[in-house]
Every structure is written in structure tokens, then in C-alpha cells.
Amino acid sequence: MAERELPIHHRATDPGGRVWSFGSVTWVHCPECDHAAKSTGSSVSCAHCGYATIPSLKPYSDKWAYPTSSNPRCSHCGNPLDRRDRPTARHKEGKLFVSIRCDHCDETEDYPASPGSDPAASRPYRLLRRYLETQVGGETLWVNNLVHLDALEDWLGAKVRERGPQPGLTMMAKLPRWMKASTNRAKVLRGLAQLRERAEQAGIDE
Ligand SMILES: [Zn+2]
Ligand SMILES: [Zn+2]
After folding, report:
1. Tell me: the pLDDT tens digits for 45-103?
2. Distance from first CA to last CA of the chain, Å, rounded?
3. Ligand 1 centre and the CA of 130: distance in Å?
4. How far apart are CA 88 and CA 66, in angstroms?
5. With a threshold of 0.70, does the pTM exceed it?
6. Distance CA 160, CA 153 (A)
7. How far apart are CA 75 and CA 93, in angstroms?
8. Pick from 48, 88, 114, 137: CA 20 to 30 A from residue 59's CA?
């Protein structure tokens, strides 16, 4: 098998942006069939076996809420209350309240609240393993999608890397040192090429 030429070129400019601005999906292992499935953050779908989670049309359950006050205190004893989401919301005269029992004095009271969400609802997605992942010299090299892969290949393949117009910690600025080391360039590019091959085999198209 002929070695593909590594995409080493002269210079690249940091395109700016954080990791989530590269592409809009993350390819993960399908929880049903283990093939590549597309995760958008709010839903997961697998073209291979048809597995799909129904995207939540109502991101906020009406039962979950948290106290609106940035520094909520118990109206009985004055001790601070924590602001975590609770499944005890209710509407009274068109306003939302959440029922909280104070840890200090045990009194339960309704407090003005903002709509929250069930913290368990978003958990399953985080547990899904990323599909485009490989090992490079004991380190894990991963990309979310093809846009992310293209950007990394362009940046890490360049001999000269220039800061772009965007200040601060861009995705490129935050890459780990092993990935940016010139001594690792060939290894890292080979890893990215493997991920591209893996994507092609899996029918990943974005
Ligand atoms: Zn599947
Ligand atoms: Zn209290």
C-alpha cells in the first residue's frame, strides 16, 4: 500500500474560534450498533441502524426550576440556599416558583424561580464515546467532525503557524504541547490521516 503524502506545508494562520465552532456535529459510537452516529448535542441519530433520540422540543421541563435570585436566602432563617435545579416548580398567578426546603431550619417555602432543566436529561450524550479518536505516542488524538479534522490538519501541517486576528485562547492556542511539537508533526499528521480513513469507511460526511 502506497504511503499517502503528509500534508506538510509552509504556513497557516490561526482561523480563530473555539473547538465547538468547528462543524456542528460530533460523531460518536452509536449506543445500539457501535457504528458512527451523529450527535448534535440535543439528539443522537445513527444512519446505520436507525437509532435516534427524539430531540427535545421543549428544552425545559415545566417541573424543573432554580431560584432566580443570584443570592437566594431562606425566608425563615436567612441562611443561603443553593441554586441548583429542582423538580419542584409550580406556577402561581402566572409566575414561576420553586419549592425549596432549607437545610438549616427545615422550613419549606416557594421562591421566585426561572425555568430549569433536568440535569439527568443531558447526561447520556456525554457518556457516548467519540468515534474519531486514535492514539499517537500514548496520547489521544481526537476530532469531533470533518471540519475540525481539516482545520487541525491545516494548522498542524504548517511549518510556520501565525496568530490570526482573533485574540485570546482559540482552539489552536489551546492545543496540547505534544500535538504542536515539530518533532511530533509527522506522527500527528499520520494520526489525522488515520482518522480521515476511519471517517471515510464509516460514511462520515460532515
Ligand atoms: Zn446504530
Ligand atoms: Zn432556613
Report:
1. 999 999 888 655 454 556 889 999 999 999 999 999 999 989 889 899 989 999 999 99
2. 27
3. 14
4. 9
5. no
6. 13
7. 20
8. 48
